[in-house]
Amino acid sequence: MAGIKALISLSFGGAIGLMFLMLGCALPGYNSEYWPLFLLFFYVLSPIPYCISRRVVDDTDSASNACKELAIFLTTGIVISAFGLPIVFARAQVIAWGACALVLTGNIVIFGTILGFFLVFGSNDDFSWQQW
């Protein structure tokens, strides 16, 4: 039952994060012209390096692994890029600063949801995302 509650909570968090992203795009005073929707690519790309490294790496070794470290490095670069893109858009006056604040709030919620997914479903229990 705890898995279902966690899944519902993560779904709610993802919906709230996407709501902030859409508000940053669509509110009439901001005239954002939907440029912040490019962040959806970062949301899709951010878990991919870590998922690949989890499939490739054997977790029996307790020492640090180069493949896992590279995956964490690439994921960190993607997340930082997702936070930097709206700021660059706001500095270039493509979007308003209010829209930038809404998009950054959405980023915090979405990446928190992605982190929560890996914390809840990333263990090697009987119900895990690794079965897919």
Folded structure, characterized:
The protein is mainly α and 132 residues long. Helices cover 70% and strands 0% of the residues. It has helices spanning 2-26, 39-45, 48-56, 66-91, 97-121. α2 packs antiparallel against α4 (66-91). The mean pLDDT is 86.
Short summary of the structure?
By secondary structure, the protein is mainly α.
Low-confidence stretches: none
Question: How many runs of DSSP E, i.e. beta strands?
Answer: 0
Look at the structure and give the mean pLDDT.
86
| Helix-strand makeup class | mainly alpha
The SSE order reads HHHHH
DSSP strand (E) fraction? under 5%
Figure out the total of helices: 5
Helix content: 55-70%
Give the overall form.
flat
Largest sheet: none
Task: Measure the end-to-end span.
Answer: 20 Å
Write the layout of secondary structure elements.
Layout: H1 2-26, H2 39-45, H3 48-56, H4 66-91, H5 97-121
Helix pairs in contact: 1-5, 2-4, 3-4, 4-5
List keywords for this structure.
single chain; 132 residues; mainly alpha; 5 helices; 70% helix; flat
